[in-house]
Amino acid sequence: MIHKDVIIIGGGAAGFFAAINITEQNPSLKVALLERGKDGLAKVKVSGGGRCNVTHAEFIPQELVQNYPRGEKELLGPFHQFMTGDTIGWFEKRGVELKIEEDGRIFPVTNSSQTIINCFLNEAEKHHVDVLYSHAVKSISKENEVFHLETSQGDFSSKKVLIATGSNPKIWKLLEDLRHTISQPVPSLFTFNIKDERIQDIPGVVAQHVEVKILETDLWSEGPLLITHWGVSAPSILKLSAFGALELAKRDYKFQIEINFIKKSFEECLGILKTLKQDLAKKTVFKSTQFELPKRLWHKLVLASNMDEETRWADLNKAQLETLASQLTEAIFNVDGKSTFKEEFVTAGGVNLKEVNFKTFESKRIKNLYFAGEVINVDAVTGGFNFQNAWTGAYIAALNISK
Hints:
Mean pLDDT: 96
Strand content: 25-35%
CATH topology of the largest domain: FAD/NAD(P)-binding domain
């Protein structure tokens, strides 16, 4: 039996962040970090396309929380304690320079996730954190204020335990055995699978300003939309997938969406088209791309409006004008299934939020058991927000563990 003052389960972003902060606050504590894999920080490595999207340039707590479909209310207090500016300061203090991109995402200036990984590994070594790989936790029990952990490489004991495993069904099962309630996990960030002639053969096309609604729900979002080989993606879709995670799972990922490609009303669009019919009378509709839409998308929507490539504006009848206006402002697509967003996999689900004290990130059920990151039922839209939740929870937990 190996005894440590603090054991952290999970060698990901939250685990390393907590370990470093605990040992920095209280260097006398012996901390072990148990990671089930052969190496840690796998999610950090693939985040942001291998660049590591560290956080997001949103500096007002009330605004920041709106990016969390689950956890919005609970994270408001914690974000007043540690949020975006603190994250930037933390990394820069350790020699990692960050940059803010146009869309608000924040990356290391090196554009490499390895920079963040190296920072964590160096800091963990500097603060004598015992990082143990290939240590899968098989059981957790508590007796006389001491936790006992059985792992694939031996047994450990500790007075304080932090769980930072992310979405891990095996750990959730162990927590259920410790009387915690687990909100059943469902995928959160995903793209929509659509087979439709209107978006076929034009992967890579981006409509910059769209509005997307999920029919028969109150769910909607706006932003860029990317057409892919299998359907649609980009922020407008990923945001919908996050806020609609539970509802879409109930529907087995079969539903309809309505896309407004130009963010104008049907009537307003129809009025513009009638003016174009006069102004561009002799030109073909197919070659007269409008509304700043990508040319290839305009071509598809024109052909879907009962026209061919030679149809001139002057020849458009009322039905064709209305059909084109409809395709531009209220195009309906059938979604049949989902795909994982890049290599990043986020779930809605985890430890019930009512069982966590968000002033300390300690369990309300079991004293000296703490949580950080997605092991609890918190998830966010894409853009660095899931990492910010991890940094905030890990930092606050570390402060309280180190006392």
